[in-house]
Amino acid sequence: MKMNNMAIVMAGLILSTAAQASNTIQFQGEVADQTCDVTINGQASAPLVLLPTVPSSSLANAGETTGQTPFTVGVSGCTASASVTAIKTVFVGNNLTASGRMGNTASVDNNVSLQLVDPAVPATPLDLTGQTGAAGLSLAANATSASHTFAVQYYAEGTALPGAVLGSVQYSVSYQ
């Protein structure tokens, strides 16, 4: 009987350990020599980038893009440094598609997603998994502010159908 009770206790410990692992919250941060105030199109909170209304015919085939809309990531209030500071912008998409684009949360059935790009290299979409940061933002020596322009565009996952398009990303900057 003691062996059965011991087996039950051991099983309970194993299950509670497994349950604890699935209920783990990880927190991540960074301590850096440099910090700045970050804005999107000059907005420090709740930025909104409005894309143009486009005809569904411009997204008739999978892989087509249209409506590229620039937005600016800016940093200000930085501490001036004697050397150049490279800053990577990290984007983490919410509701990513299987191919890594922002899924449309307004109308899931219209075959349209959103893609972030650097306008200087529009054929290469930005990573929205948070695994790598996008280069381009650089704080010049002795400067206290800088900015870099990125862009968002519609992407046809298939033949686009009319409907609203809404997507979002979280962002952070990483000082190199």
UniProtKB/TrEMBL annotation:
Q: Does the keyword DNA-binding apply?
A: no
Q: Name one GO cellular component term.
A: pilus
Q: Could you tell me which residue ranges the Fimbrial-type adhesion domain spans?
A: 25-176
Q: What is this protein called in UniProt?
A: S-fimbrillin
Q: Name one GO biological process term.
A: cell adhesion involved in single-species biofilm formation
Which residues belong to the signal peptide in this entry?
A: 1-21
The organism is Budvicia aquatica
UniProt xrefs under Pfam families:
Fimbrial
Q: Which UniProt keywords are listed?
A: Signal
Q: Which domain of life is it from?
A: Bacteria
